[in-house]
Amino acid sequence: MSDRILGHRGLLLLSFVGAIISYGIVGLPGVSLPWLMSSRVVVGLVKQSMTASTAMMTELTSVGLERTFWIGRLSSVMQIAWITGQAIGGFLNQLGTSTPALVAVSMYVADLSLVRLALPASSMPNNSQKSDQNTVASSKSIRQMFSTLATPTLVRVVAVNLASQ
């Protein structure tokens, strides 16, 4: 879907909008079981942030050590965010049963804004070609590898994914 219609950035935005709708439903006072189930269907259909982020990371990095490093970092950040998110949600639940959902909605709204402002409109629809940088040999020097760590786009991709969990 992302390569043909929306692009990776568009898929991230759609994922965040779906999560906003889903968690918004969960946060409604006195929400019924059918509505809760419907909210999970919505988020299940559109929640593709890890898929889109990994695809975007693949697009923005060269084959080899650089890509391995950044996808590993992205996966690590996602796992840390998932674990800490569960703990924070448990704490927030003590403040009220709808509080975790309302905080999640506000975080997804912030993520939506951050993606629109910070990430490039990569992988435009109907343009799934890989750039020439992906064909570069994976034998980069250590110095070049460390210089890529400061690439603003890669840092933003990791930051957005940390915030979205």
How is this fold's topology laid out?
Blueprint: H1 2-26, H2 33-46, H3 49-60, H4 65-93, H5 99-118, H6 142-148, H7 152-164
Essential attributes:
mainly alpha, 165 residues, 0% strand, single chain, 7 helices
Oligomer: single chain
| Alpha-carbon Rg, integer | 18 Å
Q: Strand percentage, roughly?
A: under 5%
Largest sheet: none
Number of helices: 7
Order of helices and strands: HHHHHHH
Question: By helix and strand content, what is the structural category?
Answer: mainly alpha
- The first-to-last residue Cα distance is 22 Å
Helical content stands at over 70%
Mean pLDDT metric:
78
**Counted beta strands:** 0
The global form is globular
Low-pLDDT windows of residues: 123-146
Model description:
This protein is mostly helical. Helix content is 73%, strand content 0%. The chain has helices at residues 2-26, 33-46, 49-60, 65-93, 99-118, 142-148, 152-164. Helix 1 runs antiparallel to helix 5 and helix 5 packs antiparallel against helix 7 (152-164). The radius of gyration is 18 Å and the shape is globular. The protein starts with a helix and ends with a helix. Mean pLDDT is 78; it is low at 123-146.
